[in-house]
Design brief:
By secondary structure, the chain is of the alpha+beta class. The chain is 34% helix and 23% strand. The protein has a five-stranded mixed β-sheet, sandwiched between helices. The structure holds coenzyme A. The site of coenzyme A (COA) has 21 residues, from β4, α3 and α4.
Length: 135
């Protein structure tokens, strides 16, 4: 498996991959949004490929105070092979190098599958409530 960073032109492939993984396309996932995100986080948009096929993704955003994880996803046929763990470990390594002291992520409250994954990787559930507004 090879881990590489996002390149201009990956957008369609990524969106198709995310939909196949059961990940919803969110505001910021269009080509312009992905490019903007890549410009701010050039080393933190990770794609995992095997024989040219996309098998995993993890997007990281470092805002100078916290690191945020988005769209951590692994192809349905490739789960429980350690790809998710490898992608997150690589993201943590890169975030640490940038000086990031803490990583956050949002999981939907019915995504118990993902919760088990995050807990296995040492992430703990916080007593916070998320607020959001689309602009
Ligand atoms: C969550 C997800 C990224 C995990 O990817 P993965 O490559 O299958 O995970 P890994 O194989 O690296 O698993 C690492 C560890 O997490 C735990 N784990 C992962 N999935 C689990 C599950 N469904 N149930 C229980 N434990 C699980 C296990 O401890 C596993 O280690 P093990 O296989 O040695 O027991 C993948 O299931 C996925 O893409 N889900 C859909 C998208 C999603 O919900 N993303 C997260 C959004 S917050």
């Amino acid at each position: 498996m090879e881990i590489r960073t996002y390149r201009d032109g990956d957008g369609d492939r990524l969106r198709t991959f995310w939909l196949a993984c059961g990940v919803k396309i969110r505001p910021g996932d269009d080509d312009a949004g992905l490019l903007r995100f890549a410009a701010r986080n050039p080393e933190l948009m990770l794609l995992a490929e095997e024989d040219g096929h996309l098998v995993g993704s993890a997007l990281g955003g470092w805002d100078g105070r916290r690191g945020w994880l988005y769209h951590v996803a692994v192809h349905r046929d490739e789960r429980r092979r350690g790809i998710g763990r490898t992608l997150v470990a690589e993201m943590e390594r890169r975030m640490r190098e940038l000086g990031c002291p803490k990583l956050n992520l949002i999981a939907w409250d019915d995504n118990t599958y993902a919760m088990r994954f995050w807990e296995a990787l040492g992430y703990r559930r916080e007593k916070t409530v998320e607020y959001a507004k689309e602009l």
